[in-house]
Amino acid sequence: MLHSGSRNIGNKLAQCHISTAKELAKMAGNTLPDPDLSYFVTGTPEFQAYWHDLQWAQEYAHFNRDVMMARFKRIIEKHLAGGKATKPLLEVNCHHNYAEKEVHFDEDVYVTRKGAVRAQKEDYGIIPGSMGAKSYIVKGKGNVHSFCSCSHGAGRLMSRNKAKKAYTLDDLIEQTKGVECRKDEGVLDEIPGAYKPIEQVMENQADLVEVVATLKQVLCVKG
User: Fold this and answer.
1) What is the domain range of residue 119?
2) Is residue 152 annotated as part of the catalytic site, yes or no?
3) Which of 17, 95, 96, 152 does the annotation list as catalytic?
4) What's residue 223's pLDDT?
5) Using CA atoms, how far apart are residues 27 and 15, in angstroms rounded to an integer?
6) 9 shares a domain with 36
7) Same domain assignment for residues 37 and 140
8) Which of 4, 36, 114, 143 is deepest in the core (most CB within 10 A)?
9) Is the pLDDT reported for residue 206 higher than 90?
10) Can you give the pLDDT at residue 85?
């Protein structure tokens, strides 16, 4: 399993469009509780420009993961398969933290999945645990009440800053026993104890997805 987003260019594009939205709100005299709540109206040139760049960034992230996986696959084949090509039983490349235009309850709507994965029927998804926990390959059940979505992972029990204060380096070493990974204070915020128990999270969303495979990592690289 590997993860990559749009590698900061998505963030740069977002900041550009947020700035434009704030200027439009100021020009229109809109009084908002917070300037960050500024928005675009569908059908306007500004919205179309934003939606175009958002889709571009998401496609870039998807392609980026394809390239990374292809390179990793070649390394595995070279060192573990004697140079022979391997064929995967299943390939899954899914977004999280993204927006898409979909049809729900007979309406065209824009769905933003923050920390979530699309789980329509026949959709395959990845729900990762923490550095020391299991991860899951899942198949969507198409639950309409969740807008055909499921969680992207365990989710945090505490913030990164709180985790750094609550745990020590010895705690990290203990909680990642059996996993080859970084064991230094630079990744203390990723300690398994800072996340919800992934088994409980999976049990809570049994009506959203079915588990296809359960994975337990032996190597975790934080890049």
Assistant:
1) 89-223
2) yes
3) 152
4) 66
5) 18
6) yes
7) no
8) 143
9) yes
10) 92
